[in-house]
Amino acid sequence: MYAALWRSVPGPTWVRSLLFLALALLVVALLFGWVFPAVSQLLPFTDNTVGAGTATGR
After folding, report:
1. pLDDT score for 4
2. How far is CA 1 from the centre of its chain?
3. Pick the residue with more confidence: 39 or 1?
4. Which residues 6+ apart lie within 8 Å of 5 measured at CB?
5. Which of 1, 4, 20, 29 would you call most buried, defined as having the most Cβ atoms within 10 angstroms of its Cβ?
6. In this predicted model, what pLDDT tens digit does every residue of 1-38 receive, in sequence order?
């Protein structure tokens, strides 16, 4: 897949590298700016499985 993307982008190697670097930075920015905050509402990151004072082994 990466080889097909590399061949489809025009220009010399340094231009392709800059384009792919810019694309990677754009994807990371989109993920951290919009996708991860929207999805965090749906994920149980704040659900605790160990509560305070619930030790039953005493």
Report:
1. 92
2. 19
3. 39
4. 20
5. 20
6. 789 989 999 899 999 999 999 999 999 999 999 999 99
Residue with tokens 């993307």: 5
The tokens of 49 are what?
């499985």
Helix/strand number for the chain, H first, E second:
3, 0
**What does the block give as tokens for 48?**
């605790």
Residue whose pair of structure tokens reads 């005493």 in the numeric block: 58
In a domain, 54, yes or no: no
The number of distinct structural domains making up the chain is: 1
Does 34 map to a domain? yes
Quick one: DSSP state of residue 12? -
One-letter identity of residue 48: N
Contact 10, 17 (CB under 8 A): no
**Residue 27 belongs to what domain range?**
12-39
